[in-house]
Amino acid sequence: SWQAHTPLVWDTSILFQPKLLTGYFDTVTRTMALPLRMALCAILLQGIAAFYLPGVSPVEYEMGDPLTIKVNSIKSVKTAIPYDYYSLMFCRPNTGGPIKADVENFGEILWGDVIKPARYQASMKMDVSCAKLCTTKPKDKDGKLRQIRKLKKRIDDEYRGHLILDNLPVSEVFIWEGRKQSLYYKLGYPLGIPGNKTRPSIVNNHLSFTIKYHKPEGVPGYRIVGFNVLPYSIASEHIDVSCKGDKPWRPDSFGPQTVIFEPKESATQAISWSYSIRWEEEFEVAWSSRWDHYLTSADASNAKIHWFSIVNSLLIVLFLSGMVAMILLRALHKDFNRYNDPDNEDEAQEETGWKLVHADVFRLPQNHELLCVYIGTGCQLLGMGLITLVFALAGFLSPANRGGLLTAMLLLFVLMGSYGGYTTARLAKMFHAQSWRTIFLTGVWFPGTVFSPFFIMNLTLWAQGASNAVPFTTLFALLGLWFCVSIPLVFVGAVFGYKRDAIEHPLAVNAIPRAVPEQKWYLRPPVTVILAGIIPFGAAFIELFFILSSLWLNKVYYVFGFLALVLVILAITCAEISIVMVYFQLCYEDYHWWWRSFFISGSSGLHLFLYSVFYFCTTLRINSFWSAFLYFGWMSVMSYTFMVLTGTIGFLATFVFVRKIYSALKVD
After folding, report:
1. Measured between alpha carbons, how far is residue 406 from residues 134, 363, 469 in Å?
2. Which of 49, 416, 611, 657 is the most exposed place for a label (fewest CB within 10 A)?
3. How far is CA 493 from CA 60, 376, 436, in A?
4. Cα separation of the two ends of the chain
């Protein structure tokens, strides 16, 4: 059950319970290797320590100093389409002209953040009982009620308004009545209460702000450490009469303000807007930890599930990976003894197994040029992801730096083009297929296949008037990064790759290819690829739930320590499952392993898309066609990227494995 609650001091022990977690980890890690112990300890320390955000400096305010409150886009989990705050009939600041937005980076644009000045006025430690902003009339010049219709639609779609003070987003505070009472912070405030056939919609036209401040020792002035809101709906006539700055004000003692446009004689004629401010001194929460309650209450009801399920799933995956590695090593050791022993009578009678295809295992695969392109792109994505994760772990890509994560990923992908070109050139030279056409494809194939659906979805956002529609100027800037920076870097990397000596295969290839015997149904590519991809996906799907919640449910994701460990386990699982499946494939004399090794682990992208369909049906409440179109469009891009990344890991591990076992084989 949920209750609206006056903001209280946040205690991180409510969710984390360090003593309980420490005891659990101590029990688990007694049987684990030292590196895993170190990783778990690092994650534990990250979870219970205060969050300090590098690159963000505190601001001190003196008594009576004016504070700047800004507005951000309105967003809803039912539509996933953000809109400009001033697209509705809210009170606009008295600027005397168009309202200019703050300078945005690409991440803010893609995320839909449009930050503009607000009309709310606040001064340090100066309470405001009630202040009227303005009265807006919904009628347009032609007498139609378009504005009131739009406001009602946004309320019925459960849109939330977002404000910012001192770089802190406003939030509602609730009490979670579970086994143990805890606080839950929800970003933004509801624009109103949706109506139905029996009652009209209600607009929240009065905002009661609670601003928390902290007085640091040895520093003059005060720092903002909290920004909370409690919305009310008050009939406009009461605001016009009773909302005076010096009079006592009880916003819950008045009737609500309805939003009606039919019939016209009963339509809402005007809406008055107001606000109040109350200051509270905070003694326990310092400026460095003021983001704690945003980060730790991203999903308060599932906090324990998040911690314990991740640890347990990692232990299971590690255990299975160890068992697979042991079985594989024992089987290979037995094969080497049998094949390399000249006195082995069974071997003298007949050659079987993976040794039989030694003259074909390094045969040129079909579409080898495209394979080089995908592996080069996968290495580019892998480098981008690793560097981004390092900066995120260091705290430089914090939620306080809005759009920083997406911007960093874009720039790093562009800069890692040299790494992708180098990898492509090395593989192309190994296949004796040196061509600048292959290098050009590395620079345009993956970005082109991602940019095409992105452009289509951006046209949809333009048509919907969304705030995250990328303008033409930004599109041209992206194209400039692509063609003027990324592609040249790909060619630079390829130059160095082509200068290196070609990778030589340990065994020669016969001129005439060997016929592959007919495979049993469970060894055919569709079956092995789809079933094997479940294991890498299973190593990461719990963390994927929280990532999808941050993307589509407007929640903050900042547990990059967990994400780093999950990615390590994911990489190990992708490598091992590809090696095992290719080994069994070679044992059954099927030497077409190049593409198979890529798709075995890469099929986890297909499972990610299937999981996104399940997530859409069970968790999201999207109810419009265009919102669903955008959701599945973005999830298709994510799944495709995930496929290239995991497929590259599986291919590289299998490539090393196949070269290793055949280089140790004695062949006449």
Report:
1. 37, 41, 15
2. 49
3. 48, 11, 12
4. 75
The contacts of residue 483 (CB under 8 Å, 6+ apart) are none
Q: At what angle do helices 534-552 and 560-587 cross, to 10 degrees?
A: 150
Q: What are phi and psi of 387, to 5 degrees?
A: -65, -40
| Both tokens assigned to 83 | 């809109």
pTM for this structure? 0.83
SS (H, E, C) 323-373: HHHHHHHHHHHHHHHHHHCCCCHHHHHCCCHHHHHCCCCCCCCCCHHHHHH
**CB-hemisphere CA count at 13 Å for 388?**
21
61-80 burial: b if 16+ Cβ within 10 Å, else e: beeeeebebbbbbbbbbbbb
Strands (E), 376-416: none
Segment holding 441, helix H or strand E: helix 436-464
- Rounded to whole angstroms, how far apart are CA atoms 303 and 370? 43
- Tokens encoding 487: 């592609």
* Residue-wise pLDDT tens digits, 529-564: 899 888 888 888 878 888 888 888 887 777 787 788
By mean pLDDT, which of 262-271, 420-429, 491-500 is the weakest? Answer: 262-271
For 313-365, the pLDDT digits (tens) are 677 677 767 767 776 676 667 766 666 666 655 544 445 577 788 888 898 89
Give percent of the chain above pLDDT 90.
38
